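debug: dumping io for the single-chain case to check the tokenizer round-trip. Nothing else runs in this session.
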Amino acid sequence: MKKIIISFLAISGILTVAAQDMNNLVENPSFEQTEGRIKRGGAIAVAVGWMSPTTATADLFSGKVKEGYGTPNNNLGIEEAQEGENYAGIRAFSYNDKEARNYISSKLKMPLKKDQKYCVTFYVNLAEASKYAANNIAINFSKKQYNISEAKSILTSTNNVMHQDNPVFNGQFGWDQICGVYRAEGGEKFITIGNFSSNGETQNQRLKKSKDFSGSEVVSAYYFIDNISVIAIDDESQCHCSADDGKPETNFIYEIAPLNIEGMEPSLVATNTIIYFGYGDEEISKNSQAHLKNILDMMLANGRSKIMITSHSDEGEAEDPELAGIGEKRLEAIKLYLMSNGISYTRIMTEDVKNTRPADQSGTELADAKNRRVTFTYIP
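debug: decoded output
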């Protein structure tokens, strides 16, 4: 009976997701459908149904691209897609307009109905290359497509949906949700995402370069964009925005670029490899798989060696009764990966130290993300 119940719940979840996708008026909302290749920047038009309304064309990042404009690693940062493998990238602010802003735009599946309410959501992440962070990131609804033959900003104060608090979005780990309810004027056919306020009306914050990002900085606030949704609703209570209930809007997964282990001593490969997790999550991200392959290659090249895998939790996980055993689950996921790729279980040792060895004790959300990790010790 238990298996039947689990299967029924799984099917129900699939049907719920499918229903949401059918109700979403945004075509290709996570940029997964593509036609052509991403060869350089400004390739947003490779995503089916998307374009840039000015000559400063926006970027597209894809899991199918290995360098430059790939995911999760690219020239501008390291981030797993919020949904699927792809996401877009726009410049929302640049100091003294040194770099032109970008926008992304798409035609809705059908025009909006007059006075109909719509739940609108999309997600943003500040790229590590950004020297600035900014607010005023919004989605705009229009009856006609913006089509500007210049690299200039689109400035409009009407028909915009933005975060209820309109904060400066400075989170470089995880995705911030922008969510709100839009009452249609009627006949709106297009959406455009970007900053529609002047620099003078835009709050900005200058940032220190991330120690974990080795790429070049950009003198702007550059954001990854993903998972856009516009769904008709009968009542505003049907639009659940994460900011409404006071819960954290993001689930940080701290990530760094994989090492180049060529010529590196095995002990250094182990001590410099760390795999991070989201809160309560044991899934190994695509970025972490690249780190884990370094451990695998090192173990395969040193056939008599062993490895100690140590799981660490953040304080919240350690105190959450619903997450009892989360450390063991993470260890099992990594152990299974190594064993399925030719490493004998006799060469793998594990320990779960919970939150007794924190990497960062500052108590911030970023610190918690650094503490949710698995580390490795090489044993010759």
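debug: round-trip ok. The longest strand covers residues 220-233.
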